[in-house]
User: What shape does this take?
Amino acid sequence: MGLVLTNNVSSLTAQNNLNSTNNALSKSLERLSTGLKVNRGADGPAALVISEQQRAQIAGIRSAIDNTNKAVSLVQTGEGALNEINSLLGKVRGLVLDSNNVGVNDSNALAANQAEINNALNTITSIANQTQFGTKKLLDGSASLTATSSNAAATATATGSITAGSYGVTGVTAATRANVQGQTKLDAAFTAGNTETLTVNGVNVSYVQGATAAASMTAAQTAINNVADRTGVRASIDSTGANPRMVMYSNNWGSGNKITVSSDTAAANSVLGTPTANNDGTDIAGSIAGVAASGKGNTLSAVSGAGSGLSVTFNSQAAGDTYTSAANNPFTSDATATTVTVDDTKSLLFQIGANAGQTAQVALSDSRANALGKGVSGNVTDMTKIDVTKLSTNKSLSSDFLKVVDKAIGDVTSQRGQLGAFQANTLQSNANNLQTTLQNTTAAESTIRDTDFASEIAMFTKLQTQLQAGSTVLGNANQLTQLVAGLLRG
Assistant: This one.
């Protein structure tokens, strides 16, 4: 290229290269000062998009770890309260066992034991009402599952981690109570004013006969039902045939509830006559959500399958104590197929993942005294119905009291086991996995976004040297026009 004066192309070339080097050096300085190799979209559009998504994920994972740890604290709060309730139930069980020793205990000793039992039960209810995490109550039933039944004669309860939805209860074989069915009686068999004493499960029950079978049976029915809490037996009158007959049935549903009855009056003059049947009770049978369930008394409980944790209790088909028909009587439970709907609206929901839908939930059953020990066959329906002072006149209650306490202990222990499994298998395992995910996601984001200082320092040094050389070359290029001036001087 010839020597020219108007356009110094060599200088322009040197300037262009020097500017490029200077820009590259500025970016290198930026990377070194910020520690990031992608500081704006222009530095790497695809890398920026991926990096920002990973940053959002990292922030979400950190929040999820915090959420999980808070959930662990809540579960430990509930489990700690249940541990104390377990201890109190152990004391109640000891007091019940002590009270059962009726050969030694007098009424004063039983009253003292009952006072201590009442105190323990009040404390259990107080603990359940007062246990809370922040302002959220845990054990008063406000965080429990609810279950509703399509059958008016059936009640359902749901515990554990059963999923909300509808569950079919099918193939139900009704439970029965133990029952004694008397002989149909004619009016002429009774003498008004005669006193008959029936011995029912070891308890003497006396009544005064009337002039007719109906009057005598009504008097006998009243007398038997008045002491049903002592004998475990109730009475009804079957008036479906030409002549009435007396029927007796156990308070409890299911097997092992046999009735023994005898009379001090000859069969011809007895309200029972010669009983035509003396049947033991039978347990309910059926399936829940298509899986065979465990039947105890009139309660069907799912122990496996999708419905695990669901229990359905089928009540008597009869209204009151009136025997209306063989299919509708006081000692046969309902046997209708039922749909149970479980609602988990009140259960505790935890966000334990970085994304929508990554949640876990747990329900905490009502642990107040009146909610413990339910569903046991017997004359005692829950913990608050324990009254050991009655043992002085009704020794048969001893087993009922103990069964209710044992069921209450089982209820609380099962709840503690559920919470322990939820903490260990769901929350803590999830936290460990989140920590690993956080580490790997952070490493991936670092690879995309962070400055490699070893490489960048080498580049920075190279660019510094190149900038110095470019400045020297630019100076030399600017001196080329002086050669033209020398030629003009000649």
Remarks:
- The CA atoms of residues 65 and 315 lie 47 Å apart.
- The first strand starts at residue 132 and ends at 133.
